[in-house]
Amino acid sequence: MRFLWGFLAAILIVVIVVIIFGIDSIRGGAIEEPPAYQSAVINQVKLWFIPEAREVLPPPEKTREALLEGGEHFNHHCAVCHDLSGDADSLLAESFHPQVTDLTDDVVQAYSDEQLKWITDNGIRYTGMPGWAKLIDDDVQWKIVYYMRVLGDPDQKGNYEEMLKERGLWKIGLPVGEHEHEEEPGRQPSEQQPSEQQPAAPSQQEPVPERDHSHEQETDDHEH
């Protein structure tokens, strides 16, 4: 009986601590930096409980071109928050709390590839991290994960930065014309893309030649 009461008391204490922790986190807002213990607890909980992606198809081969494609998509989709270098060193990133994750940090690099893929797929609720499963196909998500590993390796990071710069891809959010996705499954392609040139509809009817009334006038004169 004492064991049971002790067990119930322990559960009650844990629940109270979690409630206090949650209320304190919410009331803190997103501007002020949270206490170090909160960040440490959250990071450890994520590492413990984030599942690994379960894939039906095998991931793509990790080639240089795959990494460069991953870098291109990362710069287009992810760099606005995580920055081009992945270290989330911007005023925008610092305005989130929990802050936007520094992908070069050992905490992130400790995740397995499958865990990073799951995060990319599903996002993390209440952190501002979106899930990309409905926006980016599976193959590309894996390539972004591969590129995250590059960001955590200073030697590779510099090399791939130079290659992306040479291709004109070292910029946040590439223009629409330079970055296109395949049609989503089940979506019917549009009959004509807006960018295609279409014959311009005439703004007004062609002018009708004026009728020559001089002959009619002469006829009237003869009649009279």
Q: Sum up the overall morphology in one term.
A: elongated
Strand content: under 5%
Counting DSSP E segments of at least 2 residues, the number of strands comes to 0
Oligomer: single chain
Class from secondary-structure proportions:
mainly alpha
Mean pLDDT: 75
Portion of residues within helices = 40-55%
Q: Taking Cα atoms only, what radius of gyration do you get, to the nearest Å?
A: 31 Å
Query: Ranges with pLDDT <50 over ≥5 residues?
Result: 184-208
Q: What is the helix tally?
A: 9
Largest sheet: none
Polypeptide structure, described:
Mean pLDDT is 75; it is low at 184-208. The protein has helices at residues 2-27, 36-49, 64-82, 91-94, 106-109, 113-122, 138-151, 154-166, 214-223. It is mostly helical. Helix 3 (64-82) packs across helix 7 (138-151). It is elongated.
In short:
This protein is mostly helical and 224 residues long. Helix content is 51%, strand content 0%.
Descriptive keywords:
9 helices, 224 residues, mainly alpha
What's the helix and strand layout?
Elements: H1 2-27, H2 36-49, H3 64-82, H4 91-94, H5 106-109, H6 113-122, H7 138-151, H8 154-166, H9 214-223
